[in-house]
Amino acid sequence: MQNNNKEIILVKDLVRSFVDGECITIVLKNISFSILEGEFVAIMGRSGAGKSTTLYQISLLDDPTSGEIILDGINTHDMNQEEKTQFRLNKLGYVFQDYSLMTDLTALENVALPLLMQGVDKKEAFLKAEGSLGEVGLSHVMDHVPSSLSGGEQQRVSIARAIVHNPKIIFADEPTANLDHISSLNVMEIFKNLNKNKGITIVMVTHEEEYKKVVDRVIHLDDGKII
Amino acid sequence: MFSQIISFIGYILVGLIAYYIIYLFIFVYKNTNSIRVGYFLAVRSIKRSNKMMTLAIISVMTATFLALIVVSGVMSGLIEGSVISFREKDLGDLVISPLDNKSVILNASDMIDLIKKDDRVAGYSPRYSGSGSIEANWKTLKSNDVANKRNVSFYGIDPVLEDSVTKLSANVKEGSWLTKEDASKYVLLGKEMVEKYSVASDIDPTLLRNVDPGAKVRIVVGSTTNEYIVKGIIVVKNQDIGQKVFFVDSELQRLENILPQNVNMIAVKLKPNVDPKSVKATLIANGFNNYAKIQTFEEGTPAFVNQMKQLFGIMGTMFGSIGIVVSAITLFIVIFINAITRRKQIGILKGIGINSFAIEFSYLFQAILYTAIGCIIGSLIVFLLIKPAIDAHPIDFPFSDGILVVDPVTTLIRVGIFMFIAMIAGYFPARMIVKRNTLDAILGR
Fold this sequence. Notes:
- The structure holds two protein chains of two kinds.
- By secondary structure, chain A is an alpha/beta fold.
- Chain A has six helices and ten strands.
- Chain A has helices at 51-58, 81-91, 107-118, 122-135, 151-163, 181-198; strands at residues 7-20, 23-36, 40-45, 66-71, 74-75, 92-95, 169-173, 201-205, 217-222, 225-226.
- In chain A, the strands form two sheets. A six-stranded mixed β-sheet of chain A has the order 6-7-8-3-9-10. In chain A, strands 2-1-4-5 form a four-stranded antiparallel β-sheet, with helices on one face.
- In chain A, helix 3 crosses helix 4 (122-135), helix 3 runs parallel beside helix 5 and helix 5 packs parallel to helix 6.
- Chain A is globular and about 50 Å long.
- The relative contact order of chain A is 0.21.
- By secondary structure, chain B is of the alpha+beta class.
- Chain B has 14 helices and twelve strands.
- The radius of gyration of chain B is 32 Å and the shape is elongated.
- The model of chain B has no long low-confidence stretch (mean pLDDT 88).
């Protein structure tokens, strides 16, 4: 679902290379693209094409070698690490392939964490977290620790954590890769609804061709270039 | 000039402390939210951590506290026991001795009269001193044998007055205490000259052998030799008393031709909670400082005792410091391993927007908590178990009854140092891991 024509992600001449001794590997080769606010975009390509690397750059988890990334109108080039952390907290949400939940925390505590960091009152944070878990159909496992949940449930907790603070963009890195078919469809359904009903921009890395029909647009990568 | 420099440095220090306190308040105010989240993470981490691991960390902290407080406390207590023995069994609370250029206390009778009337005084003992030699077993001596003889110093005492100060009668382990009537017949011997009791029994050939109460000894003073019966052996861990032969005062006056007013020393015991300085001040106000050296126990303590106190204090601090370093390294390793095994989780926390200080604070809080629990348990063990036990049964050292010296202020200072070092040991490993690249941490590379 597209709300308007505002470019919420603007990438210009992005290069990411890795140095290992004398060997330099250029993973992203001058790529430029933009994503509009409210778009549901999939980044696809062969293994090693640079899909995840692109996601890590635009989600501010990694620093590009060169190029510019403008998120929600803000050029992130000059941000220091703490500013990037703050930006991620307030404007971005993440769903990782391996769920990446805090093992010491219950589902509810995992989801409430970003709100607590934002300074939301504890009671209010837990109420909102309950709401988010309800949105992904997990009201019944709020007090469970991740190890007692199935993969699909853990991924839904991860989604609840990603949306609890009303981010502008959700980044998802192969969110269904570790899930069975039913759970995968469930997760994709949740993403679709979030995009459609809340207008959240979603950028998802996937290699599953069948999700092409779910998303608004696909950015194809091959050998570090957009094709 | 010097005092001005000291004042200037003082102002700078006060300024710096004020600056850091203000800085700390501002820092805490600015980071309230990070502290809140750090606390939230720390509490959950502790609640759901491996209980055995937590127990092991707290045990290490408790052991360190004990090493820090007990080892140095026993080291100090070793000497303190000796100091207490000097006070209770020898010198008293106030020591009056001849002026530096005199051999006896002048105007002693008047001074004793004043002391006697002072209701702050619990007891006093005028002492006469002398020296000579003592010999045992001379009757069984064969022609080629070396005489069982040694040089000794004497105390001439009034048995009743002496006991009111030192209660040495309780330390006569064999035989009994002197009475006025014993003057020409009996003496008491300090244990260090008797082979059976001396700590030097294996190395000192001049110790008196086969000497028990009832045994005869021959005492030579000047050119006079007299025989006495040993009435008892004074067994006290005080090298000074242990080396003395005790006569009834009139007998030593006779042997050494001492006039009764020529007292060599007056030991004064004061009632509880009386400040020795106030009694000293009274004596000085009456002009007796012109006739004798009037010192409180602390002033009159032999210099070597104070030096030993300092030395053992330093040694105790050294052992305690080694304990702190070992525990700091242990805590560093524990927190480092804890943080490195949670590197991915730390990466995720950073990834979802939890700032570095919140994560670091969670580890810092754990270090503080473990250390505080260790200190509390350690304090309970020290103050409810070890100290009462040692007070009731002092440690049996050869030269003193060792006690445990734990004073609350020093303990608090050491706990403060321990906490500070534990904070550093807890904070830096977390910081090292948190500083690493977020994505590398998440991806575990």
